[in-house]
Amino acid sequence: MYRYVLFSRCIKYRDKKLMKEIKKIELNYYNSLNNINKGIYLNEFLTNLNYHEYLIGKLHDSIEKIKLNKELNELRERYDHIIKHKKQMNDNLSKSSNEKGNRSVYKRFMLLNV
C-alpha cells in the first residue's frame, strides 16, 4: 500500500510537470499564429471540450468515463491557460496604448508651451 502511495505521488508530479511544459509550448504556438488562425484554434479547442462533455454525458459509470473526465479537465486547464494569457496580453496592449496616448498629449502640451 505504501509503495502505491509513493507511486501515485510520482505519477501526479510527473503529470504536473508534463502539463506545465505542454501549456508553455502550446502558448508559444498560439502566440505565433495570426489573429484569424488564433480564432480558429480556440474554436477547435471549444469543439473538443464540448465533444468530451457530450461523450461523458452519454457514458454510464465506466473506466472510459473516468479517462474522458481526466482528459476534459486537462483540456480545460490548457484552454484556461491560453485565455488567461490572452487577456493579459490585451490588458498590456491597452495600457501601453493609453500610456502612449498620454505621452503624445503631454508632448504636444510641451511643444505648445515652448
TrEMBL record:
Residues 65-92 form a coiled coil. It comes from the Eukaryota. Keywords: Coiled coil. The keyword Coiled coil applies. This is Flagellar FliJ protein.
